[in-house]
Amino acid sequence: MSKFIFQAILAPEEEGGYSVEFPDLPGCFSFGDTFIDAVAMGADAAKTYVASLLGRGDAVPEPQRHHCPSGAEDVMVFFETDPYYVEDEHPSRPADCKFSDETLQAMHDAIQGRNLSGPFGTTEEMLAAILEEETG
């Protein structure tokens, strides 16, 4: 997974809550009932936005520091993502796999880092390939 950090601008809304905008990610907006909720919702929106860019092969904008308008607050939002975040199924997921996508991604990375071949039909085959390479 790749790591990203972007500036979020949070503006209080007259009806309550906060709107969230990421100036470097055009069209990436969110909302939260509280400041903390808005930051969390904004982080998920940015994570989804960037994962979508990666999935389409588009460039991710370089983060910049922007002027924060009067009455608004800004925070730097960190997240990790990859194209699989917005896909229904991870491409390396064996049919019987009950692992989370994060665990599966770590296993997939272990396989890729060791030049093992896949895809694997079962979780056992995937784990066996990793263990075989580990033990020689």
Describe this structure in words.
By secondary structure, this protein is an alpha+beta fold. It is built from three helices and four strands; from the N terminus they run βββαβαα. The protein has a four-stranded antiparallel sheet with strand order 3-2-1-4, covered by helices on one side. Strand 2 (18-21) and strand 3 (29-32) form a beta hairpin. The model has no long low-confidence stretch (mean pLDDT 80).
SSE order and pairing:
Blueprint: E1 2-12, E2 18-21, E3 29-32, H1 35-56, E4 73-81, H2 101-113, H3 123-135
Antiparallel strand pairs: 1-2, 1-4, 2-3
How are the strands of the biggest sheet laid out side by side? 3-2-1-4
Query: Which runs of at least 5 residues are low in confidence (pLDDT < 50)?
Result: none
Helix content: 25-40%
Identify the quaternary structure here.
single chain
Taking all Cα atoms into account, the compactness measure Rg is: 19 Å
The helix/strand series, from N terminus to C terminus, equals EEEHEHH
The major sheet is characterized as:
4 strands, antiparallel
